[in-house]
Design goal:
There is one protein chain. By secondary structure, this protein is α+β, with helices and mostly antiparallel strands. It folds into two domains: 225 residues, Rossmann fold (3-Layer(aba) Sandwich); 126 residues, Nucleic acid-binding proteins (OB fold (Dihydrolipoamide Acetyltransferase, E2P)). The chain is built from eight helices and 20 strands. The protein has a six-stranded mixed sheet with strand order 6-7-8-3-9-10, with helices on both faces. Strands 13-12-11-14-20 form a five-stranded antiparallel sheet. The longest helix has 18 residues.
């Protein structure tokens, strides 16, 4: 087995797991420093739940090592690992009140009544629910149940808390509020949280670092800002955040700059990362985020010029997606494709409206080509 820095709460080295001919997890390695919020983000079927089950001990890897606090746990059963897990449906015991739900694990390890009382009072204070010990589970709101599920785990002082899509069963408004709650709770306990999700918003808002997973492999590990602004692959560029994308053929490339003849009928200038090499004649895709596209309503049909520094095209507004300060226009270009661009709508007569001819422009450094 590999030797891992014991200063990491969790370290996985070359983990692989197959189910018959399906390679669920393929040579995955990562490590997490103490007190971090680490998310594994990916679409359904990418292998993230299998990876979490291996960390918890419910699945055995075919190859690789898992170390917690510098100690390999490969041969340690789930109940002996200092890892706890919060599931999407929380798995609280409906026949027990809050106190008994939290006390369950403490009783299993032989804690005294005095110790149980003290620890439950402390953990309820830390999850900001000091007065709910005697309540029945059905008397709690969705957000309160979420916090009690975390309290039940945290009262046992785990080295790592695993959370498997725990917000999936909540309504949208509560889910948004719980993103902030979870981040605050993680800081409160200063325990490493490993969070599994397919929701990019959850991962970006809460995490110190995010691993983007695809077909059993990690495409990129980095801060939310790094993944969003500097994606390392086409998959990450398309999966993290919203992007417009155009496919085409490379007509010029050099020094991380690319000019693409797009199938949509215009040439696009963009950048590539240091790890992507493109040559003349290659097929490629350019990605541009909606917030990077400027929308100019003062335009005529011939104003579709392009300079070395700017990409530009014209189209007609198909529809407006009003969302206050985060509003967006959908513009249909000459090829019939829809392009998304963020706009600020003030309610004045100068706001863009459906049917308007607009010029869309963006700088080459705001586009990435893969």
């Amino acid at each position: 087995m590999s030797t891992t820095n014991p200063t990491h709460d969790l370290a996985c080295t070359a983990l692989s797991k197959s189910f018959g001919s399906v390679q669920a997890v393929d040579n995955v390695s990562f490590d997490i420093p103490p007190g971090s919020f680490f998310s594994i983000l990916g679409p359904s079927g990418c292998g993230k739940t299998t990876l979490m089950r291996m960390i918890a001990g419910f699945e055995n890897p075919d190859h690789g090592d898992i170390q917690i606090k510098g100690r390999s746990v490969i041969r340690i059963p789930p109940n002996k690992r200092n890892v706890k897990m919060v599931f999407q449906h929380l798995a609280l015991f409906p026949m027990m009140n809050v106190y008994d739900n939290i006390a369950y694990g403490l009783r299993c390890v032989g804690a005294s009544r005095k110790e149980i009382d003290q620890k439950i009072a402390d953990v309820l204070e830390r999850v900001a629910l000091p007065d709910v010990a005697k309540r029945e589970i059905h008397q709690l709101s969705g957000g309160q149940k979420q916090r009690i599920a975390i309290a039940r785990c945290m009262v046992l002082n785990p080295d790592v808390l695993l959370l498997d899509e725990p917000l999936g069963a909540l309504d949208l408004k509560l889910r948004e509020a719980m993103k902030i709650e979870l981040k605050l709770l993680q800081h409160q306990f200063n325990t490493t949280f490993v969070y599994i999700t397919h929701d990019q918003s959850e991962a970006l808002v809460m995490s110190d670092n995010v691993a983007v997973m695809n077909e059993g492999r990690f495409e990129q590990i980095g801060t939310p800002q790094a993944l969003y602004h500097h994606p390392a692959s086409a998959f990450v560029a398309g999966f993290v955040g919203d992007s417009n994308r155009w496919t085409g053929k490379v007509i010029d490339a050099g020094n991380n700059n690319v000019r693409l003849s797009c199938d949509a009928g215009f040439d696009a200038q963009s950048h590539t990362t240091d790890t992507i090499t493109l040559s003349r004649g290659d097929n490629a895709t350019v990605y541009v985020r909606p917030e990077h596209i400027q929308v100019d309503t003062q335009v005529n049909a011939d104003n579709n010029n392009q300079t070395d520094a700017t990409n530009a095209l014209t189209g007609h507004i198909d529809s407006l997606l009003f969302n206050g300060a985060n509003s967006r226009v959908l513009v249909r270009d000459k090829a019939g494709e829809l392009i998304e661009a963020d706009v600020t709508l003030t309610g004045s007569s100068h706001d863009p409206k459906p049917g308007d001819l607009v010029r869309l422009s963006w700088r080459s450094e705001q586009a990435l080509c893969f």
